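Our preliminary data section would be incomplete without showing what the modeling component actually yields. Below, a chain of 333 amino acids is followed by its predicted structure, encoded as tokens that our downstream tools consume directly.
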Amino acid sequence: MPSSAVPIPRQGDDPLQPVAISAVGLRKSFGDKTVLDGIDLRVPAGSVFALLGPNGSGKTTTVNILSTLISADGGKAQVGGHDIAADAHAVRAAIGVTGQFSAVDGLITGEENMLLMADLHHLSKSEGRQVTAELLERFDLTEAAQKPASTYSGGMKRRLDIAMTLVGSPRIIFLDEPTTGLDPRSRHTMWQIIRELVSGGTSVFLTTQYLEEADQLADRIAVLHDGKIAAEGTAGELKRLVPGGHVRLRFTDPVAYRNAVSALKEASHDDESLTLQIPSGGSQRELRAILDWLDVSAVVADELTVHTPDLDDVFFALTGGTSMLSQPKENTR
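Predicted structure:
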């Protein structure tokens, strides 16, 4: 399905809610390649906003523009209430950025990395040591603080990376694919850290290739495709864009299966697997109606499962099947 065939959900944000990041018509090209083709963004303060897209879709370019690392070719944006072009210094003072690749210096200890960051933020020695100690404890790195960062695991380096980002107490944090390459335990630890940051009032702009990550963390999600925002909304709103939800009935008795096929003529069926599929949006009302229908039809299946579209289905529908990394689903919510 081409992305143009999928409607974009309406914004559900409260217009009176403070905005951490806003952008209108952002454009960026590298040579003859258009990476961003006039995108609009609005990130409410104290929320997690996830930008999804495959490699090369422009996620990192978006982060680099909003964090003033590179300039846009067109459009306007404000971060923390400051114009990214006219007041770049104020933007930098309000944000923290954790890139795809760790900024940790492996030749020095975790504590020394933190103190170096404190110096860059012009903290006094006493302030720097206090902030360093507090953040190392918060990120469970106190025991490893005196060890060279090169000896840290991937998850520990990522935690140190974010701890360094927080030295300046930023109100807005850009996390560019923060869990890429991490094992499931480290990924879940990072998710918990992000939730704690937001609960403390921090706004998080997250880019990720992991659909489950966006589903777990984000208040709103945007899908970037061909330089444009293909769709944006809550995870639930995006999932409702895609048809294909159904209730699946599985039988072990061929006779019961044939009776069900005869009784439920509107359901699609698979004779090889002895299964029927009844279209359903997954709501409680629809499920109750299907169960009533089964009772009236005297159909008793060996197994009943409800299938609803997930973000994988949304992504493939919006991008026409463009490949994207997607980790296995983890039922952690």
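The longest helix spans residues 184-199. The CA atoms of residues 212 and 238 lie 13 Å apart. Preliminary results of this kind motivate Aim 1 of the renewal.
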